[in-house]
Amino acid sequence: MPEGTLYERLGGRESIRAVVDDFYDRLLADDELGPFFETANMERLRRTQTEFLCEAAGGPETYDAEPVREAHLHVPFTPSHIQRAVELLYESLDAFDVPEEDADAVVQAVAAYEDDLLARPEDERQ
User: Fold this and answer.
1) Closest by Cα among 110, 95, 5 to 52
2) Which conformational region is residue 120 in: left (phi greater than 0), alpha (psi within -120 to 50 degrees), or beta?
3) What is the greatest pairwise CA distance in the chain?
4) What values do phi and psi take at 29, rounded to 5?
5) Using CA atoms, how far apart are residues 93 and 114, in angstroms rounded to an integer?
6) Element (H or E) spanning 101, and its range?
7) Nearest-CA neighbor of 20 among 114, 98, 112, 72?
8) Are 84 and 30 in contact (CB under 8 A)?
9) Among candidates 65, 64, 63, 77, which has minimal Cα distance to 119?
10) Helices marked H in 3-78 — which ranges?
11) Which of 23, 34, 116, 126 has the lowest tally of Cβ within 10 angstroms?
12) How far apart are CA 51 and CA 46, in angstroms?
């Protein structure tokens, strides 16, 4: 079993931020996903995603942005978009030599919110 928390194994906030920056660079450059971010406040997204991953990895940071579901209700993501984003996240983690077991843990932390990422406003009316 690996030593320390996932946060420690990932190298702490600065290392997690580097992975997040790389991930968002890949999202922006992606033909399929890039258009979703054309009007987004990218610095805010990078900061909140860093906080989210730091907290999920056992770090001292706290994710206190808008809940994932509410933040994504008007973003028309499909399951194939989520799968593509996961592929890009794995690429970013691999670029920083994150061991497979830790990369899987990071992706699982994000994947736990898939239903929230796919939610639509009409779902809220039911």
Assistant:
1) 110
2) beta
3) 46
4) -80, -15
5) 19
6) helix 100-111
7) 98
8) yes
9) 77
10) 6-10, 12-29, 42-56, 68-72
11) 126
12) 9
Tokens representing 65? 């942005």
This model's pTM is above 0.85: yes
Closest CA to 30 of 87, 69, 98: 87
Structure tokens at 44: 């805010």
Instruction: Convert the pLDDT of each residue in 88-105 to its tens digit.
Output: 999 999 999 999 999 999
Distance separating alpha carbons of residues 95 and 97, to the nearest angstrom: 6
DSSP 77-96: --HHHHHHHHHHHHHHHHHT
Tokens 């993501």 -> residue = 77
The DSSP letter of residue 113 is T
Q: Do you know the residue count of the chain?
A: 126
Is the separation of the CB atoms in 57 and 6 below 8 Å? Answer: yes
Q: pLDDT 10s digit of each residue in the chain, 126 long?
A: 568 899 999 999 999 999 999 999 999 999 999 999 999 899 999 999 999 999 999 999 998 888 888 888 788 888 999 999 999 999 999 999 999 999 999 999 988 888 888 888 776 555
